[in-house]
Amino acid sequence: MTVERDQWDVEILDDLFEQREHDLIMHIPLNVDVVNDVWFWQHENSGSYSVKSCYQWLQVLKGRWSADMELNLWRSLWKTKVPPKVIHFSWKAITGCLPNRTQLYTKHVPVQLDCVCCNSEEESIYHVLVSCNFARSVWNLSSVPASVIVATDFGTWVEQILNRGQAVVFEGALMVSWVIWKARNELLWNKNVTTVAEVINTAKTVLNQWKTTSSNRFSPLSAVINNTSNNSTNWTAPAAGFLKVNVDGAVFAASDCYGLGGLARDANGHLIEAFCLHKAGCVQPSLVEAIGVKEALSWIKKKGWEHVILETDSLVVVQALQNCLFVGSNVPDAINNDVMADLAILS
């Protein structure tokens, strides 16, 4: 750290650490106050333990998906405009929870391992949905370029389709996979054979019908966005005798640093004073906003101003201050404690 102990000494870090350790250290924001160490759950941005983050961490340890896959694939999957039952099916298939014969056999269920559709290879999730002769015939007739994708498991296969950047193709892949599984079950339990054309037609029909009946499902979001863009909030002056301090922060990831700034204006809108800070480190935007509020409070206290309105554009920080906690937010609890302490002193 520097002599002032308010930021990392970049030159020393460059001399002592490899790039990976250097980047990890730079991601740690420093506190000028001396505080006791606290327990912090590293897999949750808030520092608090959650079942969701633990589950995701365990899946990464087991090799079922990577951190990047978790961020990209799952977020895209939950937002895909297909029936919820198809999303649930896809989640089970990607995580290896689909009850195929190989999966049942590993659970000590006495079943044959041969694929229900081709009877020539072991029935894994990837085989029955992608590489089986029946599945290949289906994909060749569909709009999904399955033949050019090389993968060994269904999760990687789906992720590669997602990376091609075509939402329609991604939706089609999920729908066709779901119908292939239904055709497999129909053959297994009812001895009914489904043709390749029937699989494609069923996938298209179900998706079109669902989109028609739920056409208004996603409209509120666009309405909110349009309404927000058409009614931008302008700055409003404080009451007579008050000052309004606006604070904001920005992250400059390319140069591993972030900046903070604030300005104070009176009831007439005249600029009274301003401040700005530049610190080394690449931290999350919500954390920068929280640090900005803390620095603004310290600045106000040093100036001796009493009647002050502090304004920030970070909804996460505002809600956290109003509720006196950052539960479920992206701001670490340690930062929250500092902000709340300064707020208590100021008030």
Automatic annotation (TrEMBL):
The organism of origin for this protein: Cannabis sativa (Hemp)
Coiled coil: none
GO molecular function, one term: nucleic acid binding
Listed InterPro entries: RNase_H-like_dom_plant, RNase_H-like_EbsB-rel, RNaseH-like_sf, RNaseH_domain, RNaseH_sf, RVT-Znf
Lineage: superkingdom: Eukaryota
Domain Reverse transcriptase zinc-binding: start-end pairs: 49-139
Name of the featured protein: RNase H type-1 domain-containing protein
SUPFAM superfamilies in alphabetical order: Ribonuclease H-like
Stored Pfam families: RVT_3, zf-RVT
Domain called RNase H type-1: residue spans: 246-323
